[in-house]
Design a protein that fits this description.
mainly alpha
């Protein structure tokens, strides 16, 4: 029984094509899993940063309301001549931030530019800044979105590479040259597309 050299060459070519496709599929699947973890981590970090910023903002609001109430009681005691109460409030309950603001407010009164409270524009009174946390949340969210787009490319690569596996499998089964050529062309297109999507996923 003689063997057809063309048939052997075709089978070898099909085996190489299947091997390359299997390797690329495995790589794309692995990278999809790894980048998927990056997506989850990025969105988690973003959510945590935004939650921390919101919590700090709530704490700032509570502090501001408490400091306003404390200053109003101090001002009432001062204007009413209740010096002992005013001194107690200032020395025992004022923190450094409120004390600095009240010193500024008193300076404004003596300078002839009275301000209604130590919380007006120009006052050194400052609450905790949430900008850094918000920027961290924005950066993590943007990184997660970018990683998600990369992850989509790897998933798409796996889907496209499945076309190659299917086409090569059919090419081995059929005997007609035209049908084989069509299946091989489809397989090569799938392999090229999968490789391109994988490269795009790596480059971001």
């Amino acid at each position: 029984m003689t063997t057809d050299p063309d048939s052997h060459r075709f089978e070898f070519f099909a085996a190489v094509l299947l091997g390359l496709t299997a390797i690329l599929t495995g790589y794309a699947t692995m990278r999809s899993a790894i980048v998927g973890d990056e997506v989850l981590e990025g969105f988690t970090l973003s959510s945590q940063s935004y939650n921390d910023a919101n919590s700090l903002d709530d704490a700032n609001t509570q502090t501001f309301v408490a400091d306003q109430a404390l200053f109003l009681r101090f001002a009432e005691a001062s204007f009413a001549g209740e010096d002992e109460l005013a001194d107690y409030l200032r020395t025992s309950l004022f923190d450094d931030r409120l004390e600095a603001a009240v010193v500024w407010w008193e300076g404004q009164q003596s300078a002839g530019t009275p301000q209604d409270s130590p919380f007006e524009a120009g006052s050194p009174y400052r609450l905790e800044d949430t900008t850094a946390l918000e920027q961290m949340g924005d950066a993590a969210f943007d990184a997660a979105k970018k990683a998600d787009a990369r992850n989509d490319r790897f998933d798409q690569a796996v889907a496209v590479l499945s076309i190659t596996l299917f086409a090569v499998g059919l090419a081995v089964l059929v005997k007609a040259r035209r049908a084989r050529a069509l299946m091989i062309a489809l397989a090569l297109a799938g392999l090229s597309g999968g490789a391109l999507l994988t490269v795009i996923g790596e480059l971001g």
